[in-house]
Design goal:
Blueprint lengths: L64 E5 L15 H10 L4 E2 L12 E2 L14 E5 L14 H10 L12 H6 L29 E5 L2 E5 L7 H4 L10 H4 L19 E7 L3 E6 L17 E5 L4 H9 L5 E2 L7 H8 L2 H4 L2 E2 L2 E10 L9 H10 L2 H7 L6 E3 L27 H10 L7 E7 L4 H14 L3 E7 L1 H9 L2 H7 L3 E6 L6 H9 L18 H12 L3 H17 L3 E8 L2 E2 L4 E2 L3 E2 L4 E2 L5 E2 L1
Parallel strand pairs: 1-9, 1-10, 14-15, 14-16
Antiparallel strand pairs: 2-3, 4-6, 5-6, 7-8, 8-9, 11-18, 12-16, 12-17, 13-17, 19-22, 20-21
Helix pairs in contact: 9-11, 15-17, 16-17
Length: 604
């Protein structure tokens, strides 16, 4: 999951630290607000994700308008296409999924529970067959009943990658009849926009009744219940989506709610206004108390103005997932009244610089390794707010993943400092002893410009001259680094990025960002085009494992190989100082995503 669009921390998937076998192998102490208030969290950024044993400012009061701000904007309103972490948070208010996660009180938040379905499935046929029973009484906002076919059709849409792209691609991986092709596409089913036979035409999903849906996977996969929490399972009305004016790519402007709120108005770069869905049945939902009457989300908010609005209680929270600016965090630490309404969660996201291998000279391994050695990670950490913004990263996988172990493939950089001597040695090995020219891409907001300048200075010391290009955060992932053709056209060499798990297990973190089979023409998340076939071999091996210990061992080898290949240069494991207004209630941090749970919030 792409961390916040506004601050570059990812759906998809961003998150938690469990596999289907259990909770984190390296848990740290649960956190709850101290009696005197204060920032809650561990600046070291290691161990299990942040969780509360009780909410901050608990209340069940109903009514009022919750005021939410964010520096960027959603990537898509279409639930099948969105991949920004805070977008997923918003979508939980609008779109229900087959399964979901409970609130953020401890490890219970790491195990899927029923949402549209009555509960998780128990697999059969060697983890290939997964059957779910749907609840009755769930409707779209227009009153149409949600059925098993509504969910089947929603998943079928994700196979039409020329129309529905940008979101996770797991459905094609496991539900393509005959197996997915090496290019990440399904050749045997292309989605429901190819004539009447293609509607409900995906043979690997069967719906024997309006309340029964069965998935017949093309390979064993023990984590399928996690996949069923993804927004791609949000039901879609066929009658709406098959109309040219309201369906396909245009569904982005015509989303039909199944959750407690529906979209009253949406203006890109300005606001998203939510009001109650009159056909929502709370008796069918155990995870959304839906306390406010309205939720007004102001997008493309200036970050410093948003911080100031939170301090003065004119906005209730920032849903970007990346916290306040470093200067604001310093002010909070000196102001006890502000500390009392602040949390500092470990988010489960890793921030990194993706080294774009299809741009010269980064096809050469040693040229890529020169970047790994030259980057001063301490500077990057400082730009993000020091220890309260994150801890130094040497692995791509975050410490919140089960089975995680620390390692460092680049001697002399463990403290976060650069190793210029080693960088220059790598330049000689790649045939560029005097350096070369390249381009750095990032966003034009928040810490993006400063971080790019630090990297530019680091590279200059070893002879690499980099030009900085900055883009709107709302489209940075979806239209700039998520489209390989645009990377090639712009000759981009290095891209700032961030990623968190789509669900709380290693597969949900790594697969989309480093698997060579997932290099897509649009909606690509393997930004650097990591193409080592040994990565795919290790992923296939990990998926086939029957014990968590063996699976974790394979995923560690994946992480080590990706680092040896210098596909991405991780620099921090993310944390966030989150400030809330003095009127917001029922604040949880979702352990599966490491961000505020919008579903639970209310007003005092």
């Amino acid at each position: 999951m792409v961390v916040s669009a506004g601050a570059l921390v990812a759906v998809g998937a961003v998150v938690a630290a469990t596999t289907v076998a259990g909770v984190s192998a390296t848990p740290r102490a649960r956190h709850r607000p101290a009696a005197s208030g204060g920032i809650q969290g561990n600046p070291q950024g290691t161990g299990a994700p942040f969780a509360l044993t009780s909410p901050l400012s608990p209340s069940t009061a109903v009514g009022g308008t919750l005021k939410v701000g964010v520096a960027g904007d959603v990537d898509y309103m279409d639930p099948a296409r969105t991949y920004y972490a805070f977008s997923w948070d918003i979508h939980q208010l609008i779109n229900r999924t087959l399964l979901t996660f409970p609130d953020g009180t401890g490890h219970a938040g790491l195990v899927p529970t029923g949402d549209i379905a009555t509960g998780p499935a128990t697999p059969s046929n060697g983890d290939r067959t997964w059957s779910y029973t749907l609840k009755t009484g769930i409707k779209f906002q227009d009153g149409t009943a949600v059925t098993a076919k509504s969910i089947k059709y929603a998943i079928e849409r994700t196979f039409a990658t020329s129309v529905i792209n940008g979101g996770p691609t797991y459905f094609a991986t496991f539900l393509c009849p005959g197996g997915e092709t090496k290019t990440g596409f399904c050749r045997t089913y292309r989605g429901p926009y190819r004539g009447k036979p293609s509607v409900y035409g995906l043979s690997t999903i069967t719906t024997s009744s309006p309340t029964q849906i069965v998935f017949h996977l093309n390979q064993p996969f023990a984590e399928w219940n996690y996949v069923m929490t993804l927004l791609g399972t949000s039901p879609v009305e066929v009658s709406m989506d098959q109309k040219r004016s309201t369906g396909g790519a245009n569904y982005d402007d015509h989303v039909q709610s199944t959750g407690p709120y529906e979209i009253k108005s949406y203006a890109f770069g300005r606001h998203i206004d939510l009001v109650r869905n009159p056909n929502y049945n709370p008796a069918t939902d155990g995870t959304r108390p839906a306390l406010p009457d309205k939720i007004n989300i102001t997008t493309s908010f200036d970050s410093f103005s948003l911080d100031n609005a939170l301090i003065h209680n004119t906005e209730d929270l920032d849903i970007g997932g990346t916290g306040v600016q470093p200067a604001t965090a310093a002010k909070i630490l000196q102001t006890p009244a502000l500390e009392k309404r602040t949390l500092d969660p470990i988010t489960g996201f890793t921030r990194y610089v993706s080294i774009l291998q299809e741009t010269k000279p980064f096809q050469n391994l040693h040229c890529r390794k020169a970047i790994e050695f030259a980057m001063n990670r301490k500077e990057q950490q400082g730009a993000r707010g020091g220890v309260y913004g994150g801890s130094i990263a040497t692995t791509l996988g975050p410490p919140t993943l089960t089975g995680w172990k620390d390692f460092n493939e680049y001697p002399g950089t463990a403290s976060g400092r650069a190793n210029d001597r080693a960088a220059k040695a790598q330049l000689k090995l790649c045939g560029k002893p005097n350096g070369f020219k390249t381009k750095i891409v990032t966003t034009n907001q928040l810490e993006g410009p400063q971080q790019a300048k630090f990297l530019q200075q680091d590279l200059k010391r070893v002879g690499i001259h980099a030009k900085i290009l900055m883009f709107d955060p709302a489209t940075y992932y979806s239209s700039v680094i998520g489209v390989p053709a645009n990377i090639k056209k712009g000759h981009y060499g290095l891209a700032f990025a961030g990623w968190g798990p789509d669900w709380p297990a290693p597969y949900g973190f790594f697969e989309n960002i480093i698997d060579p089979r997932k290099i897509l023409p649009v909606g690509n998340s393997n930004y650097g085009a990591c193409a080592d076939p040994r990565i795919t071999t290790l992923i296939k091996k990990a998926v086939r494992q029957t014990s968590p210990a063996a699976e974790h061992r394979d995923w560690r080898q994946v992480d080590i190989l990706v680092n040896k290949d210098a596909c991405d240069a991780p620099y921090t494991y993310d944390k966030a100082v989150d400030l809330f207004s003095n009127r917001v209630s029922n604040v949880y941090i979702e352990p599966q995503f490491g961000i505020v749970d919008l579903r639970a919030l209310g007003l005092l």
